[in-house]
Specification:
Strand order of the largest sheet: 1-2-3-4-5-6-8-7
Largest sheet: 8 strands, mixed
CATH superfamily: Gcn5-related N-acetyltransferase (GNAT)
Oligomer: single chain
Mean pLDDT: 92
Radius of gyration: 16 Å
Number of helices: 5
Order of helices and strands: EEHHHEEEHEHEE
Length: 176
């Protein structure tokens, strides 16, 4: 549980795996993510907004259980305020690839990112994957520093951004 900054009666957020009942709130958070950080994710706000609710619901059902793909959210009891996903790396046994990391601006700097990473790391270890990997757009220094504080190390590998050819991403890793 994390408290929001500046509240007289601190708000609390439970970090947990998504549930099928989260579909509408996850859709709202996904649209916020894309509006706030359009270069960090693999689709545009327009593409996500056009997707039917049934597709969001199916995705949430798929990632709410199982060993290969999971999403975790920060839930203060209303609007979701954070997200992280993890998927078994397609070619590296023992590695979970972290994706779609987001903390809503009001909750940044509260430790919520660490709680989200802790949740995906625990799931990864339970599934016998002892290493975490993520990619960050080169130049996103705020995210880079945040991941360094959580023990991620820059591997030196740079790869093309999957959807924007002019951008590069850097790879970071740490033990789960």
């Amino acid at each position: 549980m994390i408290s929001a900054p500046g509240d007289e009666a601190p708000l609390r957020a439970e970090v947990r795996r998504v549930r099928p009942t989260d579909a509408a709130r996850m859709r709202a958070l996904r649209l916020e993510m894309l509006a706030d950080a359009p270069l960090a994710f693999l689709e545009t706000l327009a593409e996500a907004a056009a997707r039917p609710h049934a597709e969001y619901a199916a995705r949430i059902r798929q990632t709410s259980t199982g060993p290969t793909n999971a999403q975790f959210v920060a839930d203060p009891g209303g609007r979701l305020v954070g997200h992280i996903g993890g998927v078994a790396h397609p070619t590296e046994r023992g590695v979970t690839l972290i994706y779609a990391v987001y903390v809503t601006p009001m909750w940044r700097g509260t430790g919520l990112l660490a709680d989200l990473v802790t949740a995906v790391a625990a799931w990864s270890r339970a599934e016998r994957r002892d290493n975490l990997m993520l990619e960050v757009v080169v130049g996103n220094d705020r995210a880079y520093r945040a991941y360094q504080r959580l023990g991620f190390v820059d591997t030196g590998l740079r790869v093309p951004h999957p959807t924007i050819p002019t951008l590069r991403e850097l790879q970071m890793r740490r033990p789960a």
